[in-house]
Amino acid sequence: MKKYLVIGNPISHSMSPELHNYWLKENKILGVYERQKLKINELEKLVLKIKNKKVIGANVTVPFKKKIIPYLDKLTPEAQNTQSVNTIFLDNDRLIGHNTDISGFEKAIKDTKYNLAKKKILILGAGGVVSSIIFALHKMKVFSVTLSNRTKTKAENLKSFFNNTIVNRNKITVIDWGEIPNFDMVINATSVGLKNNDKLNLDFSKIEKENFFYDVIYNPEETNFLKSGKKFGCKIENGKKMFIYQAAEAFKIWHGIYPKINHKVIGLLNK
Ligand code: ATR
Q1: In the structure, what pLDDT confidence band is assigned to residue 164 with cuts at 50, 70 and 90?
Q2: What is the pLDDT of residues 77-104, one digit of tens each?
Q3: Is 107 a catalytic residue?
């Protein structure tokens, strides 16, 4: 049976197997998709398994999206432009690293009907997924991106990385953690909220009504961050669609079929 994996550390929280195994069955594809917790020194062994076709494809999550890159033969432009890989596949015996987080985020935002063009975006966090979000925001022609991360140097590193790429450097500003500038949309890309009681220590009380609060976290469905957006009368959205779309795109790459996304699929993620 063909085997697919999601690798990360920790990995037990990943809902990718629920989605992929459902789609495999629905499309009558003989295969199995499993979680695998890896240590950094096990990455090489993993890529060898894909080269030897013991594993056909893999998704990559925190903390390996960048760390996996040296072991791959080639990056797609999406992975290259973000230095972030979440999907691996074999093409003519070459290991390719691709990034489906970008299109996952883009499609999720399109579904909300919120037009990002010329908007001011505030991103909280500077972890693994943020380069993909910045890249997608750039494609959607936002006006500016402001980065705020507890560890400021990580946000500054992201800014300098994009200085050298097609994203206009003047559009990225780094501010101190705790500072809340004027924005149209705020994105929580930190891990704060994964536990129900988690709270970001930020004061949004001075914001205007028509803002949009977006959380990359989808479990729990409504983090305290989204609750505070709701309290201020803002539009809110969690990361569920982004997660489903990035998975669907990976499925298409491995199996050549774009899987169905419907209420049943969305329901698979309700724990
Ligand atoms: P990684 O940083 O390994 O890529 P991640 O889950 O992708 O992991 O990112 C976690 C993000 O949540 C980081 O931006 C982290 O901030 P630091 O860079 O300062 O670690 C942020 N984060 C985690 N706990 C936080 C907290 N209690 N308050 C604010 N930000 C937090």
Answers
A1: low
A2: 999 999 999 999 999 999 999 999 999 9
A3: no
Separation CA 58–CA 65 (nearest Å) = 12
List beta partners, residue 18: none
Q: What is the pTM of this model?
A: 0.95
243 C-alpha to ligand 1 centroid (Å): 19
pLDDT digits (tens, 9 = 90+) for 136-151: 999 999 999 999 999 9
Q: Beta strand pairing status for 94-98 and 87-91?
A: antiparallel
| Ligand 1 geometric centre to CA of 212 (Å) | 21
Ligand 1 pocket test target in 191, 199, 215, 243 with most atoms within 8 Å of CB: 191
DSSP 40: G
Tokens found for residue 168: 């206009």
* Ligand 1 proximity of 127 Cβ (cutoff 6 Å): yes
Of 2, 39, 51, 65, the catalytic one is 65
For helices 101-112 and 130-139, the axis angle rounded to 10 degrees is: 60
Which residue do the tokens 């990559």 mark? 60
Of 82, 149, 154, 201, the residue with max ligand 1 atoms within 8 A of its CB, to mutate for a pocket test, comes to 149
The torsion angles phi and psi of 109, rounded to 5 degrees, stand at -70, -40
Mean pLDDT of the chain: 95
Tell me the Cα Rg of the chain. Answer: 18
Return the beta strands (E) in 10-54 as ranges. Answer: 31-37
